[in-house]
């Protein structure tokens, strides 16, 4: 986990927004820094909305809980404190994720006792994609049992997209959004530790 990185590498657009920027931002939701970075080019923000309007809606093949398992685990594995803290703050209760499950998503694994078989299949799939860019036959079959074939396809896509989002959040050094600090990965780690692969490792 990056520490003491409070200054973003690029400046998000700030209000007052011109009409084109405001129109691109409005459908994305609250104007968090990530969205305001996207909106430096309004057409980019519109493209992001086009993607998210399916995958963050009830039209997707995943349940809200499955979606948040994928997003939270991907953000944790990427060390993207910014993205993790937003989703843990906004969606954990709606996804029925309790404190033990959030801790497991941050620095546990799919074998932890807090998970049932379906949740384990989703988390294991995210870990396999992060580690190997692929699923073996057993992982694929378990994921299909948990989410169905179309749900499994959506897991692949959501996992890939949130790798991209995590790269942006980390690479641009976006500071945590106000009100999300209590849910941050950094605060949930023991002092001096960070997520590194499947295990906790020393901070450089």
Blueprint of the fold:
Layout: H1 19-25, H2 33-38, H3 42-55, H4 64-77, H5 81-91, H6 99-107, H7 117-132, H8 137-171, H9 185-188, E1 193-196, E2 199-202
Helix pairs in contact: 1-3, 4-5, 4-6, 4-7, 4-8, 7-8
Polypeptide structure, described:
With 204 residues, the chain is mostly helical. The protein folds into 2 domains: 18-59, no CATH class; 62-198, AhpD-like, CATH 1.20.1290.10. It contains 9 helices and 2 strands, in the order αααααααααββ. It has helices at 19-25, 33-38, 42-55, 64-77, 81-91, 99-107, 117-132, 137-171, 185-188, and strands at 193-196, 199-202. The chain has a two-stranded antiparallel ribbon. β1 and β2 form a beta hairpin. α4 (64-77) packs antiparallel against α5 (81-91), α4 (64-77) crosses α8 and α7 (117-132) packs across α8. The longest helix has 35 residues, at 137-171. The radius of gyration is 17 Å and the shape is globular. The chain starts with 18 loop residues before the first helix and ends with a strand. Mean pLDDT is 88; it is low at 187-204.
């Amino acid at each position: 986990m990056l520490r003491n990185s409070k200054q973003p590498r690029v400046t998000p657009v700030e209000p007052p927004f011109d009409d084109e920027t405001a129109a691109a931002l409005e459908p994305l939701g609250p104007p968090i820094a990530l969205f305001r970075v996207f909106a430096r080019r309004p057409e980019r923000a519109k493209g992001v909305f086009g993607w998210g309007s399916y995958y963050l809606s009830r039209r997707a093949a995943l349940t809200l809980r499955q979606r948040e398992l994928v997003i939270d685990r991907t953000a944790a594995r990427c060390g993207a404190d910014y993205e993790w803290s937003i989703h843990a703050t906004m969606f954990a209760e709606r996804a029925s994720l309790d404190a033990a499950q959030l801790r497991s998503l941050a620095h546990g694994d799919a074998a932890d006792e807090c998970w049932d078989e379906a949740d384990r299949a989703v988390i294991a799939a995210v870990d396999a994609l992060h580690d190997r860019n692929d699923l073996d036959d057993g992982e694929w079959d378990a994921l299909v049992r948990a989410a169905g074939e179309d749900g499994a396809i959506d897991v692949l896509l959501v996992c890939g997209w949130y790798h991209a989002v995590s790269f942006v959040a980390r690479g641009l050094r976006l500071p945590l959004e106000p009100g999300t600090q209590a849910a941050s990965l950094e605060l949930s780690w023991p002092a001096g530790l960070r997520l590194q692969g499947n295990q906790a490792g020393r901070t450089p």
